[in-house]
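User: Run a structure prediction on this.
Assistant: Running it now.
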Amino acid sequence: MTRFQRGYVFTAHGAWHVRYAVTALVDGQTKRVQKSTRICSKSGISKRQARTLAQQVLDRVNVEAGSVPQVDVPATEFWQRTYLPHLERTAKASTLHGYKKLWSQHLALHLAGFTLRDYKTVDATRFLTSLAERGLSTRTIAHVRSLLSGLFRHALRTGLIETNPVRDAGSLTPARTPEPTYAYTLDEAENIVTALFENTQAQLVFALACVLGLRPGEIAGLQWSDIEGEWLHVRRSSWRGFVGTTKTPESVASVPLIEPLKSLLAAWRLQAKSEWVFPSNRGDRPLNISQYAQRAIAPLLRSRNIAWHGLYAGRRGAATLLVQLTGNAVASQYVLRHKNIATTQAFYVKPVQAAAIDGLRLLESKLAERKTAYRGGASEETC
């Protein structure tokens, strides 16, 4: 049962005030908080008189306190005051950056005018359909939908709504299929490393991506203490100088070092002046590897008419080559450090025409062998 409040009358700034408790929304949750209301000027008013005036305020508060108020919050306010602070506490810096871009580009204007309880599945469906009709790819729409659903899921978990309206929403128009991702071939990777022969740092950055399959953030996060003998230990990631954990727990692992990485690391270590393998100009933070690649690697390759598809194309190339050499995706999964081999196969191992040709030739030989055996058996039976 709700406690009947008598309040506390006090003076401040030349006026009488009354303090009492109310149920309010704090960080997305309903909590009991202290509140005060100005009653009247202090001049000529006794405390007894102030108590009488304060009782009018308290009577209303006590009546309203009979049940927990049903708070309906504007969606944009919930983002700003509750969900964004939650993301800032829990999401990685790169993820948070992406969420903020999606919010400003797509969701801020769309959710303006909606409260959390007003928003329905049909509203989300119309919105996602409009994105598809504007030509956004399935991947981009999926990211937008994920953030939108996450916002309402958080509201659901904090008791502000009863259901997540985005759960069953989807575009009614087929979205554009995104452009296929690229994977460097071994010849292309060798040509790039050769073209970078005057820049050991650039060679090493690219080789870590296309030989060991490291992500740009994992390359940036490397320290010299992570390199021990025949092994390279992936322990952290860095994004724009912000050091944090790796993308997934499975990404923390050790991968074997091979040539030419050993030689490149040895040559680069002679120039080392920081604990970071690739330090920023000041040396106290990691280098922004993605920015460095666009600034130092891409222009040089373009000047020599060599196509540049980014560092992730090196990671995909490493996965594809390992499958070609081993005949299965297990080695690729280990090097790329995926929890699920299906991820390796679906997103990183690229179909190679040469592999198809080799496979069909093997099938041809196998069929020829079976045909010969069949003919031999038939001739013996005839005899």
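The chain is about 50% helix and 10% strand.
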